[in-house]
Amino acid sequence: MNIVVCLKQVPMVSExxxxxxxxxxxxxxxxxxxxxxxxxxxxxxxxxxQAQGGxxxxxxxxxxxxxxVLYEALxxxxxxAVLLCDPRLAGADTLATSxxxxxxxxAVTPDFDxxxxxxxxxxSETGQVGPQLAEELDLPAAFNVEHLQLAGRTLTVRRVxxxxxxxxELDLPAxxxxxxxxxxPRETPLGGLERAFAQGAVRMLDALAIGAxxxxxxxxxxxxxxxxxYSPAAQKKGVxxxxxxxxxxxxxxxxxxxxxxxxxxxxxxxxxxGHG
Amino acid sequence: MDKAGRDxxxxxxxxxxxxxxxxxxxxxxxxxxxAALGGELCVLVLGHELGQWVEEYVAHGADRVLALDHPCLxxxxxxxxxxLLVDLALARQPRVILVGATSFxxxxxARAAKRLHxxxxxxxxxxxxxxxxxxxxxxxGFGGNLLAEIVIPRHFPQxxxxxPGTFQELPHDYERQAPVEWLPLPAGLKPERVxxxxxxRLPPREQALENAPVVVCGGRGMASKKKFRNxxxxxxxxxxxxxxxxxxxxxRWSEEGTLVGQAGRQIKPQVLFSFGVSGAIQHTAGxxxxxxxxxxxxNPGAVMMQMADVGLVADANQTxxxxxxxxxxxxxx
Lengths: 276, 333
Fold this sequence. Notes:
The complex is a heterodimer. Chain A is of the alpha/beta class. Chain A folds into 2 domains: 2-216, Rossmann fold (3-Layer(aba) Sandwich); 245-275, no CATH class. Helices cover 32% and strands 27% of the residues of chain A. Chain A contains 7 helices and 13 strands. In chain A, helix 2 (67-76) packs across helix 5 (192-199) and helix 6 (245-255) crosses helix 7 (257-275). Chain B has 2 domains: 8-182, 3-Layer(aba) Sandwich (Rossmann fold), CATH 3.40.50; 208-332, 3-Layer(aba) Sandwich (Rossmann fold). Chain B has helices at 22-37, 51-59, 78-92, 103-115, 208-211, 225-228, 230-238, 246-250, 281-284, 303-307, 316-332; strands at 8-11, 41-47, 64-69, 96-100, 120-121, 126-129, 135-141, 146-151, 158-162, 180-182, 195-201, 214-218, 241-244, 271-275, 293-297, 310-313. Chain B has a 7-stranded parallel β-sheet with strand order 5-9-4-1-2-3-10, with helices on both faces. In chain B, helix 3 (78-92) crosses helix 4 and helix 7 (230-238) runs parallel beside helix 11. The longest helix of chain B has 17 residues, at 316-332. The mean pLDDT of chain B is 91. At the A-B interface, helix 3, helix 4, strand 7, strand 8 and strand 9 of A face helix 3, helix 4, strand 5, strand 7 and strand 8 of B. Strand 13 of chain A pairs parallel with strand 16 (310-313) of chain B.
């Protein structure tokens, strides 16, 4: 069985260092990590490979640093890793991204049986690439999959969609997107990462190598145009309490008692009844 | 204007009607957009036994309803629905297509946008028409703490998804009349390649978080599962509910059902306590309805602190414990 898993490196936003003078995030120093849902998709792929035998290819698109997540995937058990790395691919929306990934899959592993993706990424949460890649590859597909079973060439999958628990059946070749509900990722084996790095096994490809039409990739191939970007925050003139914890908490309750009081006072009263 | 038409389409998503008032909310905003474009507001509804929904859409402001009613469309299946939507859009050239960001709507809109080779902006929080007749879509962007205004200048139709609760529905107007076109199922429709073996309706999702007057929300700054549990005690004292951000859910400190934000729930408590939350837009998209926010973070520059009415520059867990102590003390006195 020939499996391809698409992986994305995303910034660890919540661990970004911040500049204490300006209060701004130092975005340039963002640590990258494998997008969580992608990691679960990889785990689903690795389990299938273990059960069925075959070959697992991991594919990513991004700057050279994105190799990190591919090395991680190799250390976890992927057989082959490909990074699409080309400035012409930058600035892609999901329309261009799905086109590019499809060309890459067809160039690198045209005889694949199953394409796996995470259901969404933490840095954009659109969840559009999976469905759009399924269209581009013209494959039967199921999204937000939590459980899967393979019998012969037929997949049976379970997923929750708008308050319905659905059981779906589809034949290979197929595409699935995986949620973070199940397929808890395995730990990276000790020394696995070093071995993967030592082997230098990530293949770098550019847009031409995958036979992509340059009009359809990157910013050029994207339909959306940004007019402006702004921060929705900082509209409020809030109060900052910087003292010792106990003092700040007391100040909060004293100064904003009115604001909090209606709710909290009432609940404290009932709390007293219940526990007093 | 240009080759594209002027009409605004809304996908009539009715499968989970009470959760998805989103169709009616999109009709309310769609009316304004259609008026600005000088076009019609049209609902496309696919499925079986649609009469009740068709009436509802007219009463809520549709200028026209396109209905395709057939037993083979009883189940929501995105391959078939995509084909039908795409063929109709190609034939009738709407300028804008709006789809509710339900699980099914996201799937359908993404597939249809790909087939139509056009842009699709996810989770728009604002939609307007500019003086060039382009849909200006405001949506969370770039994984950071930003909103982006996006247009789709050269591709049509311009497509957007919108989460439930973003816009306000109009009141029913049962006097309203509008033409309804009952369309036949196209000949030669290919069978769905994904076979639906079973579909069970899950018990309605608990709405406790959405209705809570006080929400205590924890993020990565709570630092561990054990410390995160302290929020439960605080929430109990405040008569509130505990919520969580993506990192806290991903670390399994809290259940997926407590996730607040773009991919989770939208809350509107009277007071929101936010502990160790950085304030990524994926989270803050879910708390816009909170009028009073108390944030605790070691980093005074965190977006969440800037959104807060009161920000405490302190360790999240220490502050949670101190608040518990103070509240208990005041309770006894």
